[in-house]
Each structure stands twice: as C-alpha cells, then as structure tokens.
Known about the structure:
Blueprint: E1 2-4, E2 9-12, H1 13-20, E3 28-34, E4 39-47, E5 51-61, H2 68-83, E6 92-98, H3 106-122, E7 129-133, H4 135-141, H5 146-153, H6 174-186, H7 193-205
Parallel strand pairs: 3-6, 6-7
Antiparallel strand pairs: 1-5, 2-5, 3-4, 4-5
Helix pairs in contact: 2-3, 4-7, 5-6
Amino acid sequence: IRILTSMYKKLNIEKIENILDKSIRHDAIVIGWDCAESTTGICVLRSNSKDIEIILLDTITTSSKDDMKNRLDFFVMALDKFKQKLPEKKEWRINVIEQPFLSTNPFSYEALARFSTAIYLSFKKDVDYQVFMGANSARSKIGFNLNKEIEKQGIKPDKISRGKNKGKDKKIDNKLVIAGFLKRVFDINFSEHDIADGFILALAGLTI
C-alpha cells in the first residue's frame, strides 16, 4: 500500500454544485474505490459547508502472478492499514465501490468481484453507507460524456500505420480523455488513472 500525500486541493462547493447541477452533501467523508485486477485506486474526499477537500490518495497493488488467496490476504491487510490513515470519525462516511463488470476475461472479473467484496465487508463497521456504482454511472453523475468531451478537447484519433487495418482510426484512450476532462472542469491533474477514477467515484458519492 502506498499513501500519496503530494496532492492537497480544495474545491469550492458552490462552484461544484453549479458545474454538476446537483446538491453536494455537507459534512461527509466519501471514499471512492476504483477496483482493478492489478492496482486499486483510492480517493478520499471530505466536505464541509464551503469546500470539498482531497485529503487522501492511495493505491493497493497485487501481482496477477501470485496465488489469488495470497493476493486477497494481502489486499485485506492493506485495507486494515489504510483505515489507520483515515481521520477521526466525525462526519457521515460513505464508501463508493466500483461495480465489477463482466469482461471477456473471467479471471479478471473474479479478481474484481473478490476485491470489491473484501472492501465492502471490511468497512461494514467503519462507514455509515456503502454503494456499488458502475464506472459509467459515476462519470455521468459528474457530467462526463465521452463523445462530447472528445469534441471539446479537439482530440483526433491516430491512424493505424501497418497491417490489414492500415489507415483506419486507432481507438482513443478513454483514460486520457477522462484526465483531460478533470483538468478542464476541475483543474486537477492526476498522475495515475486509477486514482482519477477513485476521485470520480468519490465525487459522485457526494451527490447521493
């Protein structure tokens, strides 16, 4: 587990409510969990009557080469260590856990399902409310629309340079588009995409 302390930022609640056209819950701590097969990104937001603070950024990484039982044991141990970094419980606490999606790789889905369940069970006594939320749902709650954002950022796909698909458009990396959106709308730069998605889940949780 690795605690990232380089980012500390306040977002004005009134400004965010105007951007999202939604009310933000005051006096709350929300933990956003971007569950992934390798690296789970975590973002903790705290709100008061005026601001939203990014108070903690974190990642938990396990190796796909390791046995699943060992990975899960390590993951649970990392969750216990993470809890020690949280501020004293005063505000309402919400856990927003990314809903695992069924991909073409059943082993990946198995890992996501187990990690997300471990988070839920581990935090049952530490938070007031927990919710599983799909990535697209969370992005929609904070105003992200992929096609509109590609247009606004003026992103043009690169061309495939060889093979039978030579000359056709390459797929645009959604993660880069999301990073551009967070910079454009919230003036936030995240160095890691997993943490960026954790922020999106946490911010979406403040609108619940």
